[in-house]
Fold:
Amino acid sequence: MKNRLLNGLDQMGLGGLGEKDIFANELEENAKNVRTVAKEEKEQEKSEVDFVYGKVYRCPVCNHEFKALRVKAAKPRLLSTDPDLRPVYQYLDVNKYDCVACEKCGYASLSGSFDKISDAQIKSIRNQISKNFKGISPAGDKYTYDEAILRCQLALANAMVKFTRTSEKAWICLKLAWLYRGKRLELIAAESNRFKELYEAEMQYIKKAVEGFKVARMKEHFPIVGMDEWTFDFLMAELLLETNEVQEAKRLVSNMIVSRQCPSRIKDKARDLRDYIRESVEGE
Ligand SMILES: [Zn+2]
Structure:
């Protein structure tokens, strides 16, 4: 995991400071290096672009030569199939690569039937599609869901103009449904990653705060950042719980409860926290 504690500094031109460790702690530096290596290893994993290639097509309608992205013969692993037959593969959604579209004239179809077209159908496509078609931009090294949906919708429009069988048009509709489902699931996954990322960032700061407060407790005199000893210790106990250092949190809480100096309002909160630890943390 990258050190994100000061990542907001980058945009203010202070990125160099963000590289430094807040407490200049050598141990933390070492741990960071270990994490960086782990991250690099993970990045060598395969991704969508490893499984697709640009196949050359010649358009039967306008004779334009172009490349459409197709899934390689060595497909990734099939993970599951939805009840309505949508296949779910590892690393990529193969459904994005089912339709082939000529970017120049707008002719498109399911990849298997791209060349299966009669002269009458060509004429009809030229009249009803190509004449008004403004062109679409070529994709990069993979299709986004929007690019795939566009190509599939174009295939559906062509199927209508070509008077293809109803079943083929229905099949393209199902493919479009699968693409919208894929897009929806990708959004949900992205959101949950975002949640995880935010949570990790939060915990990274909490761990750093605990680390710094531990040192401050030993080296500084109260009040520390405006807090008396008891308020400080209570905060520490809460933070220690968040970083899963339960025993240390319990020790602080017990000290507060038995201490003669600890004010009763903090003692009450300490007792509540002790009960919480017993019931919710240790009781699990
Ligand atoms: Zn064409």
